[in-house]
């Protein structure tokens, strides 16, 4: 056996260039993913539903296609921070309003089902729900406070 290295011609390795992926907008990805989930589901459900409901489901699916196509055309990068201000204010108001509404509903629920308990005993028993609703309201107040302290658009 000969263990001496032999001179072998070295082949030039060609570098393979891969295609660069086309960057897609997040709304396009959302549209495509939602459609991939919705279309087979609608196709599977429509045959077992009554005719009237299946037609409404197909119409709703086509409306969803049109709406998501319109949304996919929006360029998120072009939306300024100032244009989002009304949406942030509405979200803050929704948080505060929902929190207040749920606290009132919780108090009415406790007062009608447990009238023999004092408010302190009710809070002690249902503290978890109180904490959730109060924290939701505080989060809404923080959102509104942040918007109030922003510099005006110049």
**Major beta sheet, specifics?**
none
The run of helices and strands is HHHHH
Question: What is the total number of structural domains?
Answer: 2
Unreliable segments of 5+ consecutive residues = none
Shape: extended
| Radius of gyration, in angstroms, nearest whole number | 30 Å
Number of helices: 5
Helical percent range? 55-70%
How much beta, percentage-wise?
under 5%
Distance linking N and C termini: 85 Å
What structural class do you assign from the helix and strand content?
A: mainly alpha
Mean pLDDT: 87
Overall number of strands: 0
Notable characteristics:
single chain, 5 helices, extended, 66% helix, mainly alpha, 2 domains, 154 residues
Describe this structure in words.
- With 154 residues, the chain is mainly α.
- The chain has 2 domains: 52 residues, no CATH class; 70 residues.
- It is extended, with a radius of gyration of 30 Å.
- 66% of the residues lie in helices and 0% in strands.
- The relative contact order is 0.08.
Blueprint (SSEs and pairs):
Elements: H1 26-45, H2 51-72, H3 85-113, H4 119-125, H5 127-149
Helix pairs in contact: 1-2, 3-5
How is this structure best summarized?
This protein is mostly helical and about 150 residues long.
């Amino acid at each position: 056996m000969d263990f001496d290295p032999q001179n072998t011609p070295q082949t030039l390795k060609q570098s393979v260039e891969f295609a660069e992926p086309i960057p897609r907008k997040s709304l396009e990805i959302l549209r495509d993913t939602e459609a991939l989930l919705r279309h087979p589901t609608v196709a599977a459900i429509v045959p077992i539903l009554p005719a009237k409901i299946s037609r409404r489901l197909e119409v709703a699916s086509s409306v969803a296609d049109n709406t998501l196509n319109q949304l996919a055309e929006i360029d998120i990068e072009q939306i300024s921070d100032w244009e989002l201000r009304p949406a942030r204010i509405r979200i803050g108001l929704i948080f505060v309003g929902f929190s207040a509404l749920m606290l009132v509903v919780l108090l009415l629920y406790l007062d009608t089902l447990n009238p023999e308990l004092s408010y302190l005993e009710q809070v002690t028993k249902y503290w978890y729900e109180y904490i959730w609703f109060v924290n939701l309201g505080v989060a809404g107040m923080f959102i509104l406070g942040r918007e109030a302290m922003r510099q005006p658009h110049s």
